[in-house]
Amino acid sequence: MNLLNDGETSTKDEVKPGRSDKRTSKKGMSWPNSVMVAVDQLGNAIAGGNPDATVSARVGYFSVHARKPYVWYWKVLEKIIDYAFQPVDGPNHCFDSYRADEDELFQQGSDFFRAILGLIVIVFCVPTAVLLRLAVLVYPKWHFSNRRKDGLSTSIPE
């Protein structure tokens, strides 16, 4: 029994999670990517940021738009995050994340929340840097340069 609105019935054309919709040519995120983005957004919300934006996008935004005396803080976080994700996303992870979420509201947060954000970045990016470097040794197709050759990455360096 199908309980869709107004007596609609289910069709074979329904798009399953992670599959592309041929009518709109959009592809949903895979389950692991969806979970990682959700955890990232949770970390951003815990650190006083917009719960719909990721930590990387927030850092990317403020590394470009922050004013003194906080410019150095955002630039350091950007370097840490970019280094961690460089094997799979290339050198500009934070800036690319910001560009992908330009329509989001980015909140700097108070000194307390910026300190929490710094801790979150350090605690998660140090092991991530090690794991991603090991992962691209085991799965070379995951390296950003190989994915771009195969057309699997939409990130374009500027």
TrEMBL record:
Give me the ranges of the annotated region Disordered: 1-29
Report biased composition (Basic and acidic residues) as residue ranges: 9-23
| Membrane spanning residue stretches | 112-139
Keywords, comma-separated and alphabetical:
Membrane, Transmembrane, Transmembrane helix
The answer to whether UniProt assigns keyword Transmembrane helix to this entry is: yes
Q: What is this protein called?
A: Uncharacterized protein
Write the lineage as a comma-separated list.
Bacteria, Pseudomonadati, Pseudomonadota, Gammaproteobacteria, Oceanospirillales
